[in-house]
Design brief:
The complex is a heterodimer of chains A (about 475) and B (about 100). In chain A, α8 packs antiparallel against α14. In chain A, a hairpin with a 4-residue loop joins β3 and β4. Chain A starts with 5 loop residues before the first strand and ends with a strand. Chain A has 15 helices and 9 strands. Chain A has about 475 residues and is α/β, with parallel strands linked by helices. The longest helix of chain B has about 45 residues. With about 100 residues, chain B is mostly helical. The chains are: A alpha/beta (about 475), B mainly alpha (about 100).
Chain lengths: ~475, ~100
Amino acid sequence: MSDDLIIGGPHSSEVTTSALRHESMRCRRVHDDLGSIQLRLRTISRTIGPGIIAAADAPRSVLLAESAIDEAARSLQTALNISQLLTDGLARAADAYQWADDTASRISQELSARLAWTVGWFFPVIVALVLPGAILGGALSVGTLLALGEQRRATLFTALGAGMHRNSAGLSDPRFVELVRSGVMSADDFGGGLARMPPELVHLLGDEGIGVFGVDTSAAVIGTVAGAVGLLRETPVTVKRISTVPGLLTSVGSGIESRADRIPREADQIRIDRYTTADGSDRFEVYLAGTKDLAVGGDSEPWDMTSNVSALANGIGGDSAGSSRAAVQAMRDAGISSTTPVTITGYSQGGLLAADLAASGDFWVDGLVTFGAPAGQVAVPHDIPYLAIEHTNDLVPALGGTFASSEPVIVRRELSPAELAGPAVLPAHELSTYSATARLIDTSSDERLSGLLRRLEGSAATPVSSTLYRAIREKP
Amino acid sequence: MITDISTTECLRILLEQQLRELTILRGRAWHVATRMPSALPPGEWRGPAHDAYTVLIDRLNHQVKCLAHALDEAASASSQAVATLSMARQVDRVG
C-alpha cells in the first residue's frame, strides 16, 4: 500500500475509481494499437489477390501465407471486440464507483453537518450537565497536583508527555484524519446550531451551500476569541535577503522531488529562484517553508500558529497572516510583479500561503504545488495547474477541509507503519516523507499526472540566481 | 512449376512488399502483447464484474498472442515463397 499513489481530483479519492480509469486507459491504448494494425493488415490482404496467385501458379507457401493472414485478421477482429468491451466496461464501472463515492461523500458530509448542528443546538444543555462534574474534577486534579510537590509533578508531566507520544499513532490513523476533516467542515454547522439558526439557513450559507460560512469563518472565530486573551495576534513583519547565489542553490534536477528538496528547511522561510526564458524574459520559482514555531503569541517567527490561523481565516482583525505578508514582500523584492510568471511550491503552512497567493490574483501564478497543506478551502482559479500532495495519515491537510472550490490533481498516499515509526508526533507530515512520495510521483505513468507535470515544468529556462529570505515578527 | 516469368516476378515483388509489412506488423503485435492491461482487476473490485474482467483479459491476451503467431506464420510463409520464386528465377536465367 505504501507505494500506491491515489490520483484524482477533488471529487475522486477512492483507489478503485482511479485504478479502474487507469486500466480503462490501458485497454483504450491496446484497442488503438490493434486498430492501427488492422488498417495495415487490410492493405496487406489486398496486396496479393487470387487472380495473380492462380496466374503465377504460386508455390504452396503463398497460400499458407494468405491463410495465416486471414487467421490473423480473425484474431485481430476478436481482440478488437474484446478490448472495446473492456474499455467501455471499465469506464462505466469507474463512473459508477465515482457516483457512489460522490454520493457517499455528500451524504456523509450532510449527516455530519446535521449532527454538528444538533450538538451546537444542545451545547448549552450539554455544558450545563457536564460543567458541575468538570469543575469538581478540575478542582480535584488541581488539588492533587498541588499536593504532589514540584519534583513528583514534573515526573508526572514527563510521564504524561511520553505516554501521549507513545500513543500518538492514533493521530496518524487515516480514519481519524477523515474524522477531523469532517469535523472541520462541520464547525460552521455547530456554530449555526449554537446561534439557534434554522438548519436550512445554516446549510444554505455553509460549505454545502453557497459557502458564506466555512473553515475560514470557524478559524476567524478562534482567532477573535484567542485575540481577546492576547493570543494569535498579528504583528508587523520584516523580511531580509540572507543570500543570493548565481545559478541554483541546490537540487539542479527537475521533477516534484526536486521541488520538495528546494523548500527551505533551516531558519530561512522563503527561497526564490530566478530563470531567464528563451525570449530573454524572467520567470520565477518560489518555495515556501512550513510552520517553524508552534507559538501562539509573543514570538518573533512569522511561520507560527498565529499565521496558520490567520491564513485559514483570511486574516484576523484586518491583518493578513504575517507569513503571507512576508512572502509578498520577498516576491516584490525579487522583482516578481503581476506580469511575471511564477510557480509556487509550498509545504504545510507554505502550501496554504501558496494557494492563497494563487487565489489572490495579485501575481501571475502559472503553477502551484503543495505538500501536506491545509488549503482545501482556498478558491484557486481552475486554470492554474495545481498539484496537491497529501498523505492519508497526515492530520494537517485535513484541517483545511475538503477541496470544495478548486480543481487540483490530488495525489494521496498512505504511509506504511515503517514510515510512520520515529520520534515525530505527526510523522506523516514530515517533509522527508513527502519527498519520498514526490519520488514516486516522478516515476508515475499516470496520464493525468504526467500531463500536469509537463505543464508545471513549462518551457526551457536558464537558472540565473537563488535567493533565500528570512522574515521576523516585530513588536506591534 | 513456374509458368509465366513476368507474372511470377510481379508476384515475387508483391510478396517481398507483403513480407516487409508483415515484419513490421508482427513486431507491433508482439509489442501490444507486452503492454496488456493487468491480468487481475484492482484489488478492491469484487463480484461478477471482477470475474468477467479476468475472463475477458484472458481472452484478449489469447487473441493477441494468436494474432502475433499468425503474423509470424504469414511472414515465415511469405519469406519461404519469396525464396522459392527467387530460386525459380535464377534457374530460369541459368536455363
